[in-house]
Amino acid sequence: MKNWLPLLREIRAGVYSVVLLAAVLGVVGCSSKGEVVVPAPNAFLAPHPESAEGTDRGVEIVVETNAWDGDPPDLGAGAIALKVTIRNESSHPLAIRYSNFALVAANDQRYSDIPPYSITGRSYEHLQPRWAYSDANYFAVPLPTKQMLEKAVAEGTVSERGTVTGFLYFKKLAPRSPAISFRAVLVDAQTGETFGRIVVPLQVKPI
Coil, strand or helix: which one is 186? Predict the structure, then answer.
C-alpha cells in the first residue's frame, strides 16, 4: 500500500490544481463577462452600434461600447476598452491627455483613463481549436498586448478640423455602479486653459 502513496498525492495535487484553476477562471469570467457597458437611455445615440456622443464648443466625441476587436478578445479583469472618435471643429488645438478622460459613477467615484503601457493583469484565453480541448484548458495572456498599445489613443494634439480614433482604457467598475458617465475635459494645447467639457451618459448592464 505504501507504493501507492506518491501516486495518490499526485492525484490529489492534480485535482486541487484543476479546482483552483476553475475557481480562478470563474472569478475572471464573472468580472469580465458578467456585465457590459452600454449607452444609457438618456444618451444621445450615434450612428454606430452601441454608441453615444456628446458635443461642446465645437468638439464632438463619439463613444463606442463593446467595440474592442483586438488581441486578446477578452481583456479580463485588466481593463474596460472604449473606442472614441474625437472630432475637433473648435478654434482651439485640442490637447489629448489621459488625465482628461474618466468614467464617473453615480456616487462620484472616478475611474481615470489608464495609459495603455500602465495596464497590468492577465487575460485567460481558451486553447484553440476549442473542440480539441476541455473547458479547463486555458492559457494566460499578460497585459497590455501589442494590439492594445497599437489601438490606443495616443497623447498629443488634435488640430483644428482634425480627427482621431482609438481606444481608451479604464479600470473595472466597482460592483453596484449601474449609472456611469464618460467625461472629457477640453483643454487648449497651447494655453493649457479649459474651454469645455463633454459628458456622455452610460450604464452597466448585466449579461
Answer: strand
Per DSSP, 107 falls in state T
Cell representation of residue 37: 457597458
181: helix, coil or strand?
A: strand
Length of the chain: 207
DSSP state of 174: P
- CB distance 155 to 52 below 8 Å: no
Of the pLDDT bands very low, low, confident and very high (cuts 50, 70, 90), residue 74 is: confident
* CA distances from residue 177 to 9, 35, 43, 205 in whole angstroms, order as listed: 45, 11, 17, 10
Domains of the chain: 35-206 (2.60.40)
Full-prediction pTM beyond 0.70? yes
